Here is the input.
Amino acid sequence: MVRRPSSAAVDLRLEKMMAKKRMTGAAVLTFEHISAVVRAVGLDGFMDDIISGLRCAGTNLDTQATVVLERSGFQYSKPDVGLIEWMPSMELGRAVGIKTVGYHPSNPTQRRLPSVLSTTSIHDTATGQLTALVDSTLLTALRTGAASAVVTHILALPTAAVVGIVGAGAQAVTQIHAISRVRQIKRIIAFDTDPAVSATLAARLPLAVPVTVVETAAEAIAQADIVCSATTVDIGAGPVLPDHGYLPHVHINAVGSDFPGKMEVPVALLRAALVVPDDPPQCLREGESQQLELSELGPSLPDLISNAAQYERYQQEITVFDSTGWSLEDLIVAEIALDHARRLGIGMYTDLQSTPADPYSPYEDVLR
Ligand SMILES: NC(=O)c1ccc[n+]([C@@H]2O[C@H](COP(=O)([O-])OP(=O)(O)OC[C@H]3O[C@@H](n4cnc5c(N)ncnc54)[C@H](O)[C@@H]3O)[C@@H](O)[C@H]2O)c1
Here is the structure.
């Protein structure tokens, strides 16, 4: 089980963080603040909030009022393979959110850092002012799990109980946790190319479910009602999942394909399935759907959510959620964390940007 501080220690840390509290200016939420918020709300409650937030965004999506731009970034191979990307979205007349996310798959083994590290900045569109800076490493993992839960809830059999995991790192933890909020998981079967990672999966989970560690992806998927693939497979080295040997009703959350040439699901399996891309243009460019034509895609994530009843008939069939990470998810999860933080008095609130009394006098504070 995940080690947690005693509630007395949590209270003390919360008290310290709330001391000398000033709640004006830009909100800065560090990892400590995010952890304090999640502990105060409860891990399950916080995950449920994100699941509801994503459902609500999908149901009420107004593409005139919500703009999600193509993500872009820098890719490099020195000192190791990595990339830093920016993921922008805007709620017209209100806020722009930009997540910067680093992906460095050698981090865990070489630097004891997560593969995926990220920060979200939020700007007020009336003034351009920065209103929040939020550590988003945990939030990214949580919202990625929540998105899979939203789709799993619609497309997996209500009785689905066995989850097959391929790639048992950080995202696998939130995939399992999120799915446990929408289906009663009775067993997990896990495979990772690094046996040291699959061996610790059970200890990293916030729920007590038996985990069987296996030696191949084929064993992990064979009895699974739901499969989650969340690997750091190299560009050009995929797919990682077998193309046969699944239960006829399997639902697959494919989370790891998020770059051109990076794939987890074989094209034959995609062609036999209803494929739900989270963001169709992005999925065609860098998700599993890069192996497909536009005409072969099923509903997008928001379309699926808004027409859930129509798609429940696919619970009997093979379905794949092509999860590449929809930028709007990052604004939603950051704002959920910020709402709780403000309510609980957690976080730093400070003027990060210059606000001279005379807006025409940039030297005002310097010459004073
Ligand atoms: N879709 C999204 O929104 C989203 C969000 C976050 C991360 N991701 C992606 O999810 C993937 C996993 O991220 P993470 O944070 O869990 O990384 P991680 O480094 O914590 O874990 C990845 C695990 O995959 C294993 N692995 C690599 N190749 C494998 C293979 N062929 N078969 C089985 N296991 C294999 C590694 O040994 C490692 O343990 C990454 O590719 C990342 O880019 C996607």
User: Anything to note?
Assistant: The CA atoms of residues 93 and 344 lie 27 Å apart.
